[in-house]
Design brief:
The protein is α/β, with parallel strands linked by helices. Helices cover 21% and strands 39% of the residues.
C-alpha cells in the first residue's frame, strides 16, 4: 500500500511547467491520490488540481511538490512549517540548491516516495519578533538599509549581553540552509545543513568588526537597532515584511527541524554546493 493519498503542488510564479503539473496529476490519478493546489496558483494555469487555501493544503497533503527554483522551494518549505508533509523539490529552469530532482526523474521519484524509498532531511528555520510582528524564514532574515536613510548600525546581543556591533549596508541572520545564499555572497562561510545554529553576517561592513559569527541554536539572540542607525527594512527570505527604527529590538529564535525535505540519495549537499557555486577545481594543481 502506498503512503501518498494527497499531493500538494507549489508552483513558480511565472514559469508554469504545465506538462510537469500534468505528470503529477496523471501519476496521482492512477493511484487514487488527490492533487491539491493553492487557489491563486492553479486557477491561473487552469490545471486539474483541486484549488484550496494554504491551511487546507498543508493539513491534507502527505507530500508537497515544489515545481520551480529555490524561491519556490523556500515558499513550499515555509508553507510546510508545522505540517507533517515533507517537500520534494523539482528543478524547473535554473539550477537550484534545494531541489532534489529534475523533471525527467519525477515519475520515478514519486514511485520511490510512495514505496517509502527515500529519506527526509530536516531544515531549521529562523523566526523573528519585532514590535507586534512575527515572521519565519528558511534561508535568512535581513536587516537592510532603507533607500535614502543612513547605514545600518546594529548591536548583537547574545544571552542578553552586548557582544558585537556592526555598521553595514545590511545584517543577515542565516540558517545553515541560507549560508549559501545572501550570506555567502557577503563573504560568509558555507555551513553544513546538519549544523544547528544561526549565522550572522554583515554586508559591506564599515565597522572595525566585520566578521560573521555562528551561534548555537540554544543561545538567545537579539539585535538592537542603535541610535545612529537609519531606518531598516526587515526581509524574510527576500520578502520585505516590515521596518525597524533606532531603539527597536529584533528577537531571533531558531526553529529546529522547521521543514522537512525529501532526499532520494542522488546528490549530497556538498555536491550540490560544488555544482551551484562552481567550486570544483579550486584545489587542483594546474
Amino acid at each position: 500500500m502506498g503512503m501518498i493519498s494527497a499531493v500538494g503542488l507549489v508552483l513558480h510564479p511565472e514559469r508554469t511547467p504545465a506538462l510537469t503539473v500534468e505528470a503529477v496529476v496523471t501519476w496521482s490519478r492512477a493511484r487514487g491520490a488527490k492533487v491539491l493546489g493553492l487557489e491563486s496558483e492553479v486557477t491561473r494555469i487552469g490545471c486539474e488540481a483541486m484549488p484550496v487555501q494554504a491551511e487546507e493544503m498543508t493539513a491534507s497533503a502527505d507530500l508537497l511538490v515544489s515545481l520551480g527554483g529555490d524561491g519556490t522551494m523556500l515558499r513550499a518549505m515555509r508553507l510546510s512549517v508545522g505540517s507533517r508533509a515533507p517537500v520534494l523539490g523539482v528543478n524547473v529552469g535554473r539550477l537550484g540548491f534545494l531541489a532534489e530532482i529534475d523533471v525527467p526523474d519525477l515519475h520515478a521519484a514519486l514511485d520511490a516516495i510512495d514505496q517509502h524509498r527515500y529519506t527526509v532531511e530536516a531544515r531549521s528555520g529562523v523566526q523573528v519578533r519585532f514590535g507586534d510582528q512575527e515572521e519565519t524564514a528558511l534561508n535568512d532574515i535581513v536587516l537592510i538599509r532603507s533607500p535614502g536613510h543612513s547605514t545600518a548600525s546594529v548591536g548583537v546581543m547574545v544571552e542578553q549581553q552586548p557582544f558585537v556591533r556592526y555598521t553595514a549596508d545590511a545584517v543577515v541572520i542565516a540558517t545553515p540552509t541560507g549560508s549559501t545564499a545572501y550570506s555567502f555572497s557577503a563573504g560568509g562561510p558555507i555551513v553544513s545543513p546538519n549544523a544547528e545554529g544561526l549565522l550572522v553576517t554583515p554586508v559591506a561592513p564599515h565597522s572595525a568588526f566585520n566578521r560573521s559569527i555562528f551561534l548555537s541554536s540554544a543561545e538567545r539572540l537579539s539585535l538592537e537597532i542603535l541610535p545612529r542607525s537609519g531606518e531598516l527594512g526587515v526581509e524574510a527570505d527576500g520578502r520585505l515584511v516590515g521596518r525597524v527604527r533606532p531603539g527597536d529590538t529584533v528577537e531571533v529564535t531558531m526553529l529546529p527541524a522547521a521543514a522537512r525535505v525529501v532526499r532520494l540519495g542522488q546528490t549530497t549537499f556538498y555536491q550540490r554546493a560544488q555544482r551551484k557555486l562552481r567550486l570544483t577545481g579550486s584545489a587542483e594543481p594546474t
